[in-house]
Every structure is written in C-alpha cells, then in structure tokens.
Amino acid sequence: MSRLLTILFRASLIAILAFITLPLLVVVAASFSPTSAVTFWPGDWTFQWYPALLESRWLDPFLLSAELAIIVSLASGLLGVLAAYSVAYQKCPGHAAIMSFLLSPMAVPQIVKGVAIVLFLSSAGLYKLLGTPGLVMAHIVLTMPYVMRMAATAMFNFDKRLDRAACILGAGPLQRIRYVLLPLIRSGLFSGMTFAFIISFNNIPLSVFLVRPGQTTLPIAVINHLEYSLDPVLAAVNVASLLFVLGTIILFEKIGGFSAHFHGGSK
Amino acid sequence: MATIAFSTPQRPTRIAFPFKVFLPLSLPSIVLLLFFAAPMGLMLGLSFQDQETGTFTLASYGRFFGDELVLAGLGRTVVMSGLVAISVTILAYPLAYYLARSTSRWRTLVFALAIAPELAGVVLRTYGWLVILEDRGFINSALIWTGVISEPLPLSKNLFGVVVGLTHVILPFGVLSLLTSLQGINPNLEKSAQILGASRLAVIRHIVLPLSVPGIVSSLLIAFTMAASAYATPALLGGAAFKVMATMVYEQVLFYIDWSFAAVMANVLLAMMLISAFVGSRLESRLQQKLHL
C-alpha cells in the first residue's frame, strides 16, 4: 500500500514536470524544424530560421527591449536602494506605512496600471511620452517594488554592528555606505535587478498600451505575428531571446553573486 | 538587562535631522506618485464623472452592467480564473510537498525545473502550447496519425486551451506559495503520527492537508487574480471567440479608443481582485477556526 503510494506520487511528479517542460521543448524543436508548418516531431534539423533574426523587423524590437530592460533594471536598482535605505535601514518615522505605499503597485494588475497610465498621459496631453520614455516609466513602476523589497530584506538582515565598527574606526557616513552597507546588500540588490530585467524584457500587459506603431518591443512584435501564423521564425526568435535572458542572468550573477541571496535568505 | 556594565558606543545611524532620513525617499516617492498614484486616482475619478458636466454619476457602471456582451466576458473571466486556480493548486501541491520534504539530490533540479520557465516569458510558453494544441498541432496530428481520431479535437481557441496555458504560466507561483506553507509544518508531527500507526494516506489527510490550508487558500487566490488579469495567454490561446476582461479592456483602448469605458472595466477588474482577496482571507480564518475546534 505504502509502496504503491510512493510509486503513484513519483509518477505524478514526473507527469507534472513533463507538463512544465513540454511547451519549452516543443518551441526549441520547432525552431530547428525544416517545414514552415510546425506539425509533428521534425525528421530533419535545420538552422535556416536563425539568420532571419538579423532582419530589422526582429532586430529593432529586440534592441528596444534590451535597451528598456537595461535602463529599467539600473534605474529601479538605484530607486529601490534609495527607498530601502530610508525605510529599512534608517527606519524613518512611519516606515511601515511608507513601505506599504511603495509596495502598493504590486497589488494592482498590470492591465489596470496600463489603462491608468494611458489615460493619465492622454488627459495630461503627454502623448509625446508614448514610446520609450513612457515604457521606461511604466516598467519602473512595475519593477521598483520588487527591487525595493529585496534590498529592504537585505538591509533588515544587515548586521548593524559592522556599521558601528566602521563608525568607531572613523568612517564617515558616505564611506560607511560605500564600503560597508552596499557590499553587504549586493546580492540582494542584484537579485532584485535581475528580476527587474526579466520582468521588463518579457513584459506584455503593460507595454501593449504604451508602444508606438512601428516601434514595438520584442514580445509584442512576436504576439502580433503569432495571431496570424505559427511561423518557425517565431520559435527561433523566442529561443534566441530566452538565450539572451539566460546570458544576462549569468552576467548579473558573475557581477553581483545574487544566488548567495537565495541561499542566505532561505535559512 | 537594562543596566549593562560596559557602555555601548553612540548609535552611528541616528541622524539629527529627519530630513536626511527622508531625503533618499523623495526620488522613488515622486516616481510612484507621478506614474502610479496620480494615474490610478485619475482613472477612479473619471469613471465616476459625467463626461460633459463633470458631476458625479454611476452611468458608466450602469452601461457596464447593462451590456450583455461585457457581462458574458466577465462571466468567462470568473469561470476561467476559477478553473485555473483549482488546476494550479492541484498540480502545485505534490511538487511543493516534494520540495518541502525531500532531501534527495534531485531536489535542486526539480526546483529549477518548476521555476525556470518563468525566465522564458509568456510569449514563448504560449507559442509552445499553440504548437501542441492547434488543429494541426502536436497532439492532434499524433492522434490522427495513429488513427485514434479522424477530425482534430478542439483543443485551442476555447476555454480548454486558455486554462491549460494559464495553468502552465501560473504554476510556479502556486508552487512557491504552497512551499512556504508546507515548510512551516513541523515534520515531526508527520513522523509521530506514523509512529503511532497512521498510514501515509492518513497522515496526509489528517495532518498535512489541514495544516496547509493557508497555503492552499493563498495559492488559489494568487492563481485566481493572476488568471483574471492575464492578457497575452487568453488573447492567443482563446482567440477571437473567447474574450475575457483583459482582452476586452485592450480592445476598448486600442480599437474603440474609449478610454473611459476601458477605465470602468479596469476598475471592475480591480474591484474583483479586492473582493477575492477579502473573501480569501475570510475563508482562511474560517477554515482555520474550524480545524482548531
């Protein structure tokens, strides 16, 4: 009886993991499929769809998305650290209430935020902000709470005795921030910035309201195309953008070592 | 405790002017006030305003609840989100239980597999499901090739396709919320029940399941709210025939250019989230009370 249960449990785990990985494997397979009709398991393999990625209709949206993701992760990293510094480190008066205000965008669905921002830009006559500036601002609203929460967690866990030691040894406030606080919260900050990067790069529900015709982000270029056909080029685009995200995460990890944040944080 | 013999140095973090404490906060606050708080306030305000006179009115909401097509979309959204919430929680539970209890070296791999698709983004995953579920897709062509069926099964462009796709997208969030709850249960409770002669099934039924109720409720809630506001997956896997709130909001903005009605829809969606969060927290405390009796 117990043995049977164990077998059933294992089988269900494998089935669920298969459900999780199947769509990703299918896309990778489709990107190497020789026929334009993506059907059953392809018999031959080809790289013919990948050169198309260098055409401007895929390259331009990719460049816009990459540019946005980099700006957004840097900006929300800076803003998140500033906010976390006041709220979690200095424990400014009313820090709990301020924290919940700063986290409140997370409680609102993206599509609602999107409508609100478009409505705001249109009634304030700020149509010019549609496109890159609007996208940057909207994505920052989306990602800053995540970065702030992670930086705040790192600062809550920060051992203040180290700061006191630096103070006794004669370090000024800026030196303490530069040489004690920032290095010690680095992994938390970088994990937040990595999150911001991924969220911004893959974002649809918010970006869809703010892109300008002829200047879209990569995910939106892909879904616009997907509504008409299941072109294998799209599979290649998706695989390439996944590789780009993975590469960036590895880069962030090399610079910031954010995986330490998760090992340390899960204790 | 109060009288410690040696003197502790002055707290270096104390700064005489609160101004200095608040200064770093100003930039992030301005960004959120300008691009989040102000737009949200404006949207709420405009939806209760008469377009011409500017006076308070509920007319836009009357239009919303009087429109059968819109109400049908709302109904579809609720049904779809409910089904997604249930299927996410059922699939996430065994995974989360394994991750909470296993000490095997496969654990890290299973965790990575459960979370990694998040990196791929919604578009890639939805594309994958389209390839699998389409009329000439993976499943249908396999079934036709083996002769099980002669006509393709309707697996996409309907409720089924959307629920499958959204379940896939939201599953990691269900796993994470159940994992937190299951990790909080003392494993010794399960061991002592087993020592006292309870079968594996009885341990699950009488100890693990009841104690993980908060996790189950939060998984249901997260999945429900995420599904109700999801845009890309319903748009692609549901097609033109299966419209939900999110796709209708998008239509109002981009095709009909009716921002005020889009705002009304967005507000109804927001109200739906708040109501489900409230109902969820009530449900959780009710269930917990019952279990403690």
TrEMBL record, chain A:
InterPro entries, sorted: MetI-like (IPR000515), MetI-like_sf (IPR035906)
Protein name: Spermidine/putrescine ABC transporter permease protein
Topological category with respect to the lipid bilayer: Multi-pass membrane protein
Transmembrane parts of this sequence: 61-85, 97-124, 136-158, 179-201, 233-252
Stored Gene3D superfamilies: MetI-like
GO cellular component, one term: plasma membrane
Highest taxon of source: Bacteria
Presence of keyword Glycoprotein: no
Protein family (similarity comment): Belongs to the binding-protein-dependent transport system permease family.
Organism field: Rhizobium gallicum bv. gallicum R602sp
Every ABC transmembrane type-1 domain range: 62-252
Single biological process term from Gene Ontology: transmembrane transport
Keyword terms of this UniProt record: Cell inner membrane, Cell membrane, Membrane, Transmembrane, Transmembrane helix, Transport
Source species taxonomy: Bacteria, Pseudomonadati, Pseudomonadota, Alphaproteobacteria, Hyphomicrobiales
Protein location: Cell inner membrane; Cell membrane
Pfam families, alphabetized: BPD_transp_1 (PF00528)
Automatic annotation (TrEMBL), chain B:
GO biological process: transmembrane transport
Native source species: Rhizobium gallicum bv. gallicum R602sp
InterPro entries found in the cross-reference section: MetI-like, MetI-like_sf
SUPFAM superfamilies with a match to the protein in the record: MetI-like (SSF161098)
GO CC entries: plasma membrane
Keyword Transmembrane helix: yes
TM ranges: 21-49, 69-96, 108-132, 159-182, 203-233, 253-280
Domain ABC transmembrane type-1: 74-280
Source lineage: Bacteria, Pseudomonadati, Pseudomonadota, Alphaproteobacteria, Hyphomicrobiales
Keyword presence, Transmembrane: yes
Membrane topology according to the record: Multi-pass membrane protein
Protein name from the UniProt record: Spermidine/putrescine ABC transporter permease protein
Family indicated by similarity: Belongs to the binding-protein-dependent transport system permease family. CysTW subfamily.
Compartments where found: Cell membrane
Record keywords: Cell membrane, Membrane, Transmembrane, Transmembrane helix, Transport
Chief localization: membrane
PANTHER family xref list: ABC TRANSPORTER PERMEASE PROTEIN, INNER MEMBRANE ABC TRANSPORTER PERMEASE PROTEIN YDCU-RELATED-RELATED
